[in-house]
Amino acid sequence: MGREHLTEPGVPLSISPPHRGPVTALTVVPHVDGRTLLVSGSSDGGVRRWDAVTGEALDEPLGGRGWVWSLAAATADDERAVVVTGFQDGRLVRWDAATGRRSAETPRTGWVRSVVTARLNGRTVVFSGSDDGDVRRWDAVTGLPVGDPLTHHTGPVRALAVVGSVLFSASDDGDVRRWDPETGHLGDPLTGHAAAVLSLVPVVLPDGRALLVGGCRDGGVVRWDAETGLPVGLPLVGHRGPVRSVAATGLDGRALLGGPVRLVAATGPGDGRVLVFSGSDDGDVRRWDAATGEAVGDPLTGHTRRVASLAITESAGRPLLVSAGDTTVRRWDMDTGRQVGEPLVGHTDEVCAVAAFGPLDGRTLLISGGKDHSVRRWDADTGKQVGEALLGHTETVTCVSAFHLADGRAVIAAGSQDHTIRLWDAVTGQSVGHPLTGHTNYVRSLAAVRLRDRRTLLASVAYDNKVLRWDVETGAPVGEPITGVRGPMAAVTLDDGRALLACLEKKSVLRRWDADTGQRVGGPMEGHSASCRVTALGAARVNGRAVFVSVGRDGTVLRWDAETGRRVGEPIRCDGEVATMAVCGGADGPLVIATGANPEVGITVRRVTR
Fold first, then answer.
1. pLDDT digits (tens, 9 = 90+) for 238-289
2. Is-contact 604 595, C-beta < 8 A?
3. How far apart are CA 436 and CA 411, in angstroms?
4. Residue ranges per structural domain of the chain
5. In sequence order, what E strands does 180-306 have?
6. Inter-residue contact 167 to 179 (CB < 8 Å)
7. Residue 369 CB partners (closer than 8 Å, separation 6+)
8. pLDDT tens digits for range 445-484
9. CATH fold for the domain made of 1-189
């Protein structure tokens, strides 16, 4: 077959009529009567063949029973192209790719999650992985078992790949294993991944090296040397959701992407490089250089706006999670995970920040700020806006906070891309004092603390790499700027009355400062990967101890004793990239950590008891 373009880059290949259900599996079959076929499987149980160039359906769906979990293409012993389908009911069915006729069927096992084919001793063998954790081998012509099942995994086998004379399997139990496909001998496990591997694809580089590429539940893409089983470089990060399935097109460097099918495809771009295309639940398709691991170009996006900010509070006696994203603020019951009431609508552009404050006049207020330059107050119980929008900023409101002064007054503070911080009376909505100026770049984060002399101190950190401190009642600066730091920022008050600030000295290293004196406290707080930026910081009191909580872009959450700066407990792993976080704790209850990013990954709430 010549080097035909399936479609122009970035333009989807349209195939019609579609399946009656979501497309769940996809494979490419080259060289079938002079053309390349695309074969798709669906939750409706149908298997369809399409002309990969024109998108034309070749016939009616090939009938099946139950969800199609997996597809693989192979060349049978008589050189015919065949397609093997794994169904939800545990059957493997072989079809003639040219005619669509069913030619073999295996006995039923557990749900068949993964299928791959290879040539062994002159015959085509089908390998299947199922929910019972076993990998089975079948003769592609007769449908009879070849040897005993390969047993080791304790969870569903999500992915299989054959590279040379080695079979690789990946399971929900977290293991990626190597097998001798002929003898069934189990090799050493592969390492380098932090979460279960959901997809595998073999890649051959221009220098002849063979790699195995895996898509992970945490959104990472991992490369291994197929011969040694050792990791190649660091995981490729950027996705915010699981990378679930794999397919290699091998057609002029184009990746075939269709509907809800998630793909990882390794193809040649025509300039000597091999690219890995990774597709995730986050809606993105990302491109990587398979040899270097470097990202190639921008992600191909298809998802809606991310969750920009989170807050935790209590309303009507129940714990409430508050999220900001798009132009709305939403409330969630943290016990049930259900949304509470209708979205809070009033902002005319994206909402970038949210905070909770109360009780105030018998109710809890939610405070939001956004790209429409406004700050708004909402009743947490009813969802109704309280009063008029608070105006004054001339650019996007990037952060909000609310707190009580020593005399009982409640104040709202908001930082903006206009480099200023503005204050309002939380009850009346009246402006308090003059704007606080001094930053020379966007204000990133705010934190308020009560000092020993009962003054309320407001700290701000901006993209000018400075922390400024203010006496809220007078509007006067407190001390000299703390320099060489960056956001985010959090603050706590210790048992001895000292107030501490925590923010970043480097992108992955935290430092503490005395909020009153501006002096550095203790040494660096190191624990996040040096290559991973900390994206959010929080603070809480848990079982009588003040803790800082930090989360990296890779989804790793670390807890720190605020007084000593030492790590507390084991790292907590979140799926995918995390952009925002909210934390709360109680005297006897668990530490509650909520993280969020894009809507496909969703908002995750964890209750940590140790």
1. 666 676 654 433 333 333 322 233 333 333 444 555 555 454 544 444 556 6
2. yes
3. 14
4. 1-189, 198-302
5. 186-189, 197-204, 210-216, 221-225, 264-267, 275-279, 285-289
6. yes
7. 351, 352, 353, 354, 375, 376, 397, 398, 399, 400, 414, 416
8. 999 999 988 899 999 999 999 999 999 999 999 999 999 9
9. Methylamine Dehydrogenase; Chain H (2.130.10)
